[in-house]
Design brief:
Blueprint lengths: L3 E6 L4 H11 L5 E7 L3 H11 L2 E3 L2 H7 L5 E4 L6 H10 L3 E5 L6 H13 L4 E4 L6 H11 L12
Parallel strand pairs: 1-2, 1-4, 2-3, 4-5, 5-6
């Protein structure tokens, strides 16, 4: 399998203590290539800590890193749809931190842009991969719960 080149947008909170270390812990699969972060202090901190190229925003990062395979969006949820649009238009696959969107119509917009640009899109939601959720999904697939009448984001 090809080593995927990953850029991260946003260095606050979960990005710095979960996403960056997790990507770097699997060098046979991933290469943490670049970080886009508005905050100068965070940008400098992670540039040094992870020996990664840093940029002020995702557009600058994509302009200077043409070989990115995936962009991991770890910004505030209100910006996810804008960044998703820009990234998908360049044909780069996307992982986005939860919640993916603040409204269903915004999520519909994101879905359309990734579909129209034929890119993969994943939300960083770990629970669907937990054993109990996999079992519940299989139970639902076999009709053990009846009709699903609603859900929420």
């Amino acid at each position: 399998m090809k080593q995927l080149k990953i850029g991260i947008v946003g260095a606050g909170g979960i990005s710095g203590y979960m996403h960056m270390p997790a990507i770097c812990a699997m060098p046979e699969k991933y290469e943490f290539v670049a970080l886009a972060e508005l905050n100068d202090q965070l940008r400098q901190k992670f540039a040094k800590e992870f020996n990664v190229r840093c940029y002020k925003n995702h557009l600058e990062m994509m302009d200077n890193e043409p070989d990115l395979d995936v962009i991991d969006i770890c910004t505030a949820p209100l910006s996810h749809h804008i960044i998703t649009y820009d990234v998908a238009k360049r044909g780069i696959h996307i992982n986005v931190e939860k919640p993916a969107a603040m409204t269903l119509s915004t999520l519909d917009f994101m879905y359309k842009v990734v579909k129209d640009n034929n890119v993969h899109f994943q939300v960083s939601e770990n629970y669907p991969f937990m054993p109990w959720d996999v079992i519940l999904g299989k139970m639902q697939d076999h009709g053990l719960f009846g009709e699903v009448v609603g859900s929420w984001l």
